[in-house]
Amino acid sequence: MTALALEVHDLHKSFGGMKALDGVTLEVAPGEILGLLGPNGAGKTTLVRSIVGRVVPESGTLLVFGSPPGSAAATAARGWVPQEIALYSLLTPAENLWTFGRYQGLSGRALDSAIAQSLEWAGLTDRRKSSTRTLSGGMRRRLNIAAGTIHQPRLLLLDEPTVGVDPQSRERIYAMIEELKSRGVALLYTTHYMEEAERLCDRIAIIDHGRIIASGTRDALVRSTLGTDQAVTIDAEAPVEAALRARLEAMGAKVDGARVTVVAEDPPEQIRRLLEAFHTEGADVRDLTLKHASLEEVFLNLTGRELRE
Amino acid sequence: MIGAIARNRLWNLRHDRAALVLSFVVPIVFFSIFAGIFGGAGRSSTPRVKVAVVDEDGSDGSRRFVAALKADRALDAVDTSPSVGSLPGVRFTATAAEAAVRGGAFPVALVIPKGFGAHPIRFGPAAEGPKMTVLSDPSDPIAPQVLAGLIQKTAMVAMPDAMARAGMEEIDRWGGGLTEQQKSTLEGNLTSMRGRAAVAAVTPRPGEAADGLVSVERRDVLGRKKDHGMVAFYAAGLGVMFLLFSAAGAGAAIIEEAESGTLDRILSTRVNMTTLLAGKLLYLAVLAATQLLVMFLWGSIAFGLEMRGHWTGFLIMTVATALAASTFGLLLASVSRSRMQLVALSNLTVLAMSAVGGSMFPRFLMPEAIQKLGLLTLNAWAIDGFQKVFWREEPVSHLWPQVLVLLGIAAVFFTIARRAARRWEQT
User: Fold this and answer.
1) Maximum Cα–Cα distance across chain B
2) Strand partners of residue A235
């Protein structure tokens, strides 16, 4: 049986009486991308730092491909891309990669080859001899990722890898991550961007107050949290009159000026009845949308906070 | 608006307590150090010139002269070598005194030749007779000057009868002869003068000056290397001071790494803290050794410092000094919480160590208490070692005390730095 890329069970850690991790349990299978979502201060950073061996938990189990985080096997199997641009800004990209490659035990031709491949992968071959501080924000982010993957880890911890990056560069980083996944690398991906989590992650774990409060695929999370209901929104041409308002509210709709919203268990039937009421009262409809509940709504529902709070 | 800017800076200073304290401590520390060095601590701390005295004459006059030198508060005159265990000290010979000066035990020695008691002074440059010899170490340009002046003063004060007798003989010789009655009267006065001399000699009055009647010959026992020796002194003194500054500056890299998150990243790889510090020590030591090498080579090219024949000693001292200075840089970086603290701490410690340790001002010119305090600094040991190599040209085997102390300092500093660096390790 293949060992899990990451196995965390009942992990506890406190700082001065503050519980940073309060029984965290999660798993990441080889080749899987697990998105870790949580508001600031939820315990994401402490969890990631525990996995890379920089924080020692008080209790619980933490294994990287079956090995404890401080072991040589875990160090070799694990890569970490911190949220900060943790690079030497005066050095060139090639020199930065050489440094972190050596620190991960690479040498000789293997190191030279890894540097060339990493530069190519990050689209920085042309800038290999530039000073890192002269690179654009997106280039530095890509180099930051390349420095964490130069030793070809089987588990990669990515901490907000697209913070402050323009949309074009973000697409490039997505492509790099998808390539890692295609190589079978397991990823633990922390982000504040819902669209990233929805696009890249196979599963999502939501952490709050040091606990994993929900986990699963995006659809499973939505289903288990908000059910299968869909949101119907109708925008009228003019503010809704009293007679129409009374008929709509009788159907369970909320009316706010010209906007009408209703959570629909049977959208086709309910939409037909709503439009019929508009027609009967002689009101015109400007727009109508039908939408599944989003991950953002799941998060809001579970934590009571916006993700960016 | 200007007030708001000033207030903002004041808040910044108030929140960095270490910087706040150091802002006031640094000036006080430096004031105290320099006041101590340059005599602010009172007359009792004024450095006394150590003199090895050799009395080859052994006459009544020379003995009185030696006794007067010993009584002079400006001198620390010694005519016997120090006792070793139960073996008593022996009286200095000219050879032993020269060796003592050459070895750095005394900055100056005085050899009183045979016949001095009979003819202590001479008139005119062409006059013949015994000459005193001052054997000096050119590393201390002040000691022979002080001694030369005090020789004249001591002779006048301690031996007035001999001076007057010599004068009387000259009058007798050039003035056509004294009558027996005149000679008898003068003889009586000379006896009286001799009686008062001992009292006057031990209570010197300020302002008493030499007039050069006693013939003194000065010889630098290391004279051949005089100029080169001073170059070596400044190369070592300033070199060590700047080594400490640059080591502290380079040590700041670890604080920058901690602040940028790079240190976290490094420690998540195969590199642990001990390996990291050892790697940084290697870099700092190589950098420091190269700095010293460049400094001495420049001294050789521009100022004629003789490197040939000194390479082995130079390399030994360079390695030991570079290691000690590098670990000092690591120590400062590991105990500082921010770059601002590191700058303040390094300014305080490096300048204080350099002042007391002899990088700015030769230690032998400092009060004895500060000279001893200087031994707590690595500057003093490094400078002493380089002095032995370039100035005194001592064999390499004589460097062991300096090398041992510097390596000991390096070991202690590295150990403390490693312990302080625990705060960057796992939490």
Assistant:
1) 105
2) A259, A287
Return d(Cα A119, Cα B71) in angstroms, integer: 81
Tokens for A108?
């000789």
- Specify the pTM: 0.73
Give the residues across from B53 on adjacent strands.
Answer: B110
B99, amino acid identity: A
Q: Say how far apart CA A244 and CA A234 lie, in whole Å.
A: 13
Query: What is the end-to-end Cα distance of chain B in Å, rounded?
Result: 43
pLDDT tens across B169-208, in order? 767 666 666 677 777 777 776 666 665 554 444 444 443 3
| CA distance readout (Å), A34 to A30, A307, B216 | 11, 17, 93
Amino acid sitting at position A200: L
Residue A251 forms contact with B (CB below 8 Å): no
Amino acid at B297: L
| Local confidence band at A125 (pLDDT 50, 70, 90 cut-offs) | very high
B274 at the A interface (CB within 8 A)? no
Cβ–Cβ below 8 Å for B262 and A87: yes
Q: Give the least confident one: A97-101, A112-116, A233-237, B193-197.
A: B193-197
Task: pLDDT band for A154, please (50, 70, 90 cuts).
Answer: very high
Q: How many CB atoms lie within 10 A of CB B313?
A: 21
Give the list of residues 6+ apart from residue B74 with CB closer than 8 angstroms, or none. B46, B48, B49, B146, B150, B204
**Spatial CB neighbours of B100, under 8 Å, sequence gap ≥ 6:** B52, B81, B92, B106, B109
User: Smallest Cβ distance to B269: which of A49, A75, A88?
Assistant: A75
Total beta-carbon pairs less than 8 A apart between chain A and chain B = 51
State the DSSP H helix or E strand holding residue A253, giving kind and residue range, or none if neither: none
Name which of B305, B285, B286, B289 is nearest B235 in CA terms.
Answer: B305
Q: Which of B301, B312, B336 is nearest to B421 (CA)?
A: B336
**Strands annotated E in chain A:** 6-15, 18-28, 33-37, 59-64, 78-81, 155-159, 186-190, 203-208, 211-216, 230-236, 254-256, 259-264, 285-292
Tokens of A257: 């000026």
Cβ distance B270 to A54 less than 8 Å, yes or no, reads no
Nearest CA in chain A to B272: A103
Distance from the Cα of B340 to chain A's closest Cα (Å) equals 20
Q: Is the model more confident about B86 or about B97? A: B97
Separation of alpha carbons B407 and B301, rounded Å: 30
Give DSSP secondary structure letters for A261-304. Answer: EEEESSHHHHHHHHHHHHHHHTPPEEEEEEEEPPHHHHHHHHHS
Q: Which residues of B101-123 are buried (b: 16+ CB within 10 A; e: fewer)?
A: bbebbbbbbbbbbebbbebbbbe
The Cα B39–Cα B47 span in angstroms is 9
Give all strands (DSSP E) within B205-272, no chain letters.
216-220
**Cα–Cα distance measured from residue B427 to residue B406, given in angstroms and rounded to the nearest whole number:** 34
B319, two tokens: 């390695």
Tokens of A306: 């916006």
The answer to whether B186 faces chain A, any CB pair under 8 Å, is: no
Q: What number of other Cβ atoms are within 10 A of residue B84's Cβ?
A: 8
